[in-house]
Amino acid sequence: MIRLAQANDAKTILELIEFHADSEQMLFRTLDDIRNNIQNFLVYEDAGVAIGTCALSACGSGLVEVRSLAVHPGHYRKGVGTALVEHCIERATQIEFEKIFVLTYALPLFAKLGFEIIDKAALPQKIWKDCQVCRKQDHCDETAMIRPLARRAELQSSPGLALNSY
Ligand SMILES: CC(C)(COP(=O)(O)OP(=O)(O)OC[C@H]1O[C@@H](n2cnc3c(N)ncnc32)[C@H](O)[C@@H]1OP(=O)(O)O)[C@@H](O)C(=O)NCCC(=O)NCCS
């Protein structure tokens, strides 16, 4: 089950991120940062345990970023990451963002969901503020990928494509 994160999920979200950030697979986030942005996070829950997370972060100009996608290593390759990104796409569509992007090493996952590689320089400058805390800030090897979002009105007129409600 995927749900919006609650305040008391912050420590579990930190653990999921920390595990991967320690091996430089993703950007580290502090507990304060997670707590201050908890409303942006989704949690994938299995038998009452949070086994995956990701966040949506608005960047202005109709753009929204998928951030902090992390799945517990005991649950890799079971579709958890895909389900979280699919929810992000649905949620971003509901909010009527125009495009969703990510900076990632997990190219195949995002490519399967319709994201395409773009030049990082095409992304708004404001996203680079996060890089100031990254150990790889001078040699960033993440790939930028972006996907257009359907207009909500178009989806509602397509009976096969239901939007989740929160
Ligand atoms: C990347 C990550 C989120 C994938 O989570 P997941 O739940 O295992 O992903 P899924 O099961 O939905 O996999 C979807 C597809 O992604 C690709 N993929 C996932 N993990 C992969 C890996 N280790 N190597 C190659 N391809 C991989 C595959 O194409 C996979 O489809 P398949 O299983 O049918 O072949 C997870 O490995 C993780 O937390 N990694 C560390 C943090 C990270 O890289 N986050 C992304 C930052 S944006």
Question: Your description of this structure?
Answer:
The chain is α+β, with helices and mostly antiparallel strands and 166 residues long. It has a single domain, classed as Aminopeptidase (3-Layer(aba) Sandwich), CATH 3.40.630.30. It is 27% helix and 27% strand. The chain is built from five helices and seven strands; from the N terminus they run βααβββαβαββα. The chain has helices spanning 10-22, 31-36, 80-94, 107-112, 152-156; strands spanning 2-4, 41-46, 49-60, 63-71, 99-104, 116-118, 143-148. Strands 1-2-3-4-5-7-6 form a seven-stranded mixed beta sheet. It is globular, with a radius of gyration of 15 Å. Residues 20, 25-26, 69-71, 76-82, 102, 104-106, 108-109, 112 line the site of coenzyme A. Coenzyme A binds at residues 20, 25-26, 69-71, 76-82, 102, 104-106, 108-109, 112.
Care to give the gist of this entry?
With 166 residues, this protein is α+β, with helices and mostly antiparallel strands. It has helices at residues 10-22, 31-36, 80-94, 107-112, 152-156, and strands spanning 2-4, 41-46, 49-60, 63-71, 99-104, 116-118, 143-148. The longest helix has 15 residues, at 80-94.
Low-confidence spans: 161-166
Number of helices: 5
* Helix and strand pattern: EHHEEEHEHEEH
Helicity range: 25-40%
Backbone CA Rg: 15 Å
Keywords:
Aminopeptidase, binds coenzyme A, globular, 166 residues, 7-stranded mixed β-sheet, alpha+beta, disordered C terminus
Please render the helix and strand layout as text:
Elements lengths: L1 E3 L5 H13 L8 H6 L4 E6 L2 E12 L2 E9 L8 H15 L4 E6 L2 H6 L3 E3 L24 E6 L3 H5 L10
Parallel strand pairs: 4-5
Antiparallel strand pairs: 1-2, 2-3, 3-4, 5-7, 6-7
The structure holds coenzyme A.
